[in-house]
Fold this protein.
Amino acid sequence: MKAFAELYAALDETTKTNAKIAALRAYLEKAQPEDAVWAVHFLIGRRPKRLLESRKLAQWAIEEAAVPDWLFGDCYHAVGDFAETIALLLPPAGTSSELPLHYWVQERLLPLREADDDTRRAWLIEAWRSMDERQRFAWNKLITGEFRVGVSQSLVVRAIAEVSGASPEAVAHQLMGEWQPTPSFWRQLAAAPGSAAESDGGLGRPYPFCLAYPLDGEVENLGDIQEWQMEWKWDGIRAQLIRRGGRTFIWSRGEELMTGRFPELEALGALLPEGIAIDGEVMPWRGDAPLPFAQMQRRIGRKVLGARILAEVPVVLVGFDLLEFESQDVRERPLKWRRAQLEAIAPPESALVLSPLVHAGSWDELRQLRQQSRERHVEGFMLKRLNSAYRVGRRRGDWWKWKIEPYSVDAVLIYAQPGNGRRASLFTDYTFGIWEDGRLVPFAKAYSGLSDEEIRQVDAFVRRNTIETFGPVHHVKPELVFELAFEGIQRSSRHRSGIAVRFPRMARWRHDKRPEDADTIETIRALLP
Amino acid sequence: MPLLELRDEGLYCAPGGFYIDPWGPVDRAVITHAHPDRARPGSKSYLTSNDGEALLRMRLGPQAVIQAVAYGESLTLGEARVTAYPAGHMLGSAQIRIEHAGEVWVFSGDYKLASDSTCAGWEPAPCDVFVTEATFGLPIFRWPSAGEVRDSIHAWWRANQQAGRASLLFANPLGKAQRLLALIDSALGPIFVHEEIERVNQIYRARGVQLAGARLGDGEKGWAGALVLAPPEAHASAWAKRFGTASTALASGWMRIRGTRRRRSLDRGFVLSDHADWSGLLSAVEASGAESVWVVSGFRGPMVRWLAEHGRRSISVDTRFGEAEP
Ligand SMILES: [Zn+2]
C-alpha cells in the first residue's frame, strides 16, 4: 500500500505526461505481480461493484473523527471530494501500513461487500488507524470507486509497453474486455512480445477503438478528395460486434458488454461468419432511416425489454469497419480493403446496415452535401483516408470528424452558482441572458468550455459583483459576454425566453464585447427551424 | 455597551472614535497589519505597530499620516485604552486590545500560533469579547509542522536540481515569502526573489530580520538548480516564461485541499499558512477566556455553530476581510 499510495501521490503531483509515465514505470518495475495487476486494474478506471453505501462510510468516518454530521457536510462542501474529506478529517495518523496493495484489496476491500455492518466498520477503522494520510486517501478512493488520478488509459498502456517491450497496441488490446486481475494476467501482460499466450478469458475481447479528431482548418488541406472515404457521422452508441467461438459479443466504447441489451444484434451475430469483429454505431432505426436518439434513450433506460419497446424502437448496427476477418487481426490492412470485405460478409436485409458512402467530386460539393446533416439526423461527416490502417485511440491524420457548425450566440452572464463535487468551492454553473425589450432574459445554462484559469477569473468576478443572492444563486452585474455554442434549438413553453437549446457550452469569452453587444431574442428566433 | 459596531466603512469603536481595518475612508483607522484587505488607503490618520509602520507606509504612500506604537504600550484614544499585542501573522501584525468602562475586547486581526522567526510571536490576550478570523475554520485544516514543510520543499528543490530544472515557488509576497526565506536552507543552491518580494525584504531587513535571497536581475541566465520565489500572480505569466520548464509550487494553507492545487495547474502544493488552523483558532478562543466571540472572516458559519455548541456565545459578522488573500 505504501508504494501504491506513493504512486498515487506522484501521479497527482505532476501535470507533465513524461513524469507520470516515469512514475508508473518505476512502480510497475518494482511491484510484485499480484500488486501490479491491481494497480493497473484501478488506474485504467475499473472499479469493484459498489462495496457499501457512502452514507455508512461517512457515518463511521464521522465517529472516528469525532465531528458532528453538519460539520462533515461543511467540510465536504469545501473539499468537494468524499474520499479526500474523510482522509483530511480523520485523527492524525501515527503510523503507515507496510502491507501490500493486494492484501488490502483482496482481504479487506472486496470482502466489504458481503460483510455485515459491524465487520465493515471494524475493518474500515482498522485500515484507517494503520495507514498514513496518503494511504488513507488512496484507500478511500478505492472504496468509493472514484479512483481518477489524471492518468488516461493510454498513459498506463504506454507505461506497461515500456516495461514489457510490447507495442502499445498489443497492450491496449489485452486490456480490453474482461480479464481477471490475477498475477498470471500481469505476467502475460508484462511478458516480452511473442511469448504471451492467448488466454481463454480473451475469447470475446474487443479491439481498442479508433477515435477521430475534429477537423481543424479547411477541409481542402486534406488534399485530394479521391484519397478519402466519406461517411455521415451517426449519433448512436459506438460499438464492436465480435463473433468468435460461435458466440456473439457487443462491446461499448466504455468496454461495457452490452450483448444482452440488443437481441437484434445477437441474432445478427448468428448470421455472420466465424472470427470477425465489426466496428459501428448502434442506432435506433426504422425502414432505411434513423429514429431520433431520444427514442434510443427510452430503450436504454429499461432493465427488461418488453416486446412493445423492441417493436417500437428496433436497433441496427450501422457498420463501418472490419477489424478481424477469418479470425485474423486485419487492422493493418488499408481501409479500402476492410470496407470491401465488410460489404462482402454483410447479410442482406439484416440488422447490419452498411454505413452509406457519400460521393462527391470535390470538397466544395461535399460542403454542399453537409448542409443536409441536420435533416438527416447526423452530426456531419467522417472523413477517413482510404489507404489507412485502423489505429488505436485518438490519432491525428487519418480519421477526421467534420461536424456541422454548432449554432452560436453571444450572451451575458447574469447568474452564477457553485458547482458540484470538486468544483463546489468555485462558481462554475452559469446562466446567460439575451436581450428582450431592453432587458436581459435568461436564455441558457452552461457549465463547460472554460479553462481552469478562466473559471477562476469568472469566480473572482462573481464574488466581487454579486448584486443579490437567492440561496446558492448569485445574481451578478451584467458585464461579461460569452459566445455560447449549442447543437439544436427549438421552441419551449417551459423557458422564459420561449426557446430551448441542446448542449449549450461556452465557446469563447468575448472580452472584446460589451453586454449591449450581446444577441437579442429576435436574432435567436431567426435560428428556429 | 458594545465596544465595536458594524458600520458602512467598517468596524467602529464608538468610545474610542476609531475604526479597525476599515474598508471605507474614515478619520481615524487602527490597522492590524499591512495586507491589502486590512490596510486600505484614503483615511485621514492611521495607527499601527512599530514593526508594521514601514510596511503600512509602503502600502499607503508617503503622504499618509501614520502613528506607530510599540507592542504592549497603551494609548488613550477618546475614552478607550488601546494596546497592540503581537498576532504572529507577519512582521508588525497586531491584535488590538480595547478597554473601556471595565470591559475588554480584543480584535485579533489575522493570526497564527505557530512560531515564525520573521515576526513577534502570537500572545494570548484575555478579554470579554474576542473578535476572530476563521480563514481556515474547518477541521480539515490541520497544519504540518514548519519543519516538515521545510523538508518537503528541500526534497522538491533537490529533485528539480537533479533534473536540471528551476524550482518556481509562489507565495504571498508580504509575509509568507519572508517566512519561507527564513525557513529554507540557502546552502542548497542559489535563491532568487521577484522584485515585489525584494521590496518587502528590504523593509524586513531594516527591522533586523535576516533573510536570504538575491534580487532577480534581468541579465541572469541558467536557472536550472535555482529556487525562485515569486508572487502567485506571476504563475503562467510572461515573466515566468524565462525559467523554461520549471517545476511550479505554491505555499499556502489552501494547498491542504487537492482540488485547489490542481485547479491552478501547479506541480506541488506546500501546506504553509500564516493563519491559524482549526485547532489553532479554537486554542486562541479558549486562551482569550472570552464570554462571547465575533467571527469576522473565512468559514464563519461553521466556526460560530461549533462555538455555540460548545457553550460560547458567538456571532458571525459580515465584513470585507479576507477578500484579497491568495
Ligand atoms: Zn493577513
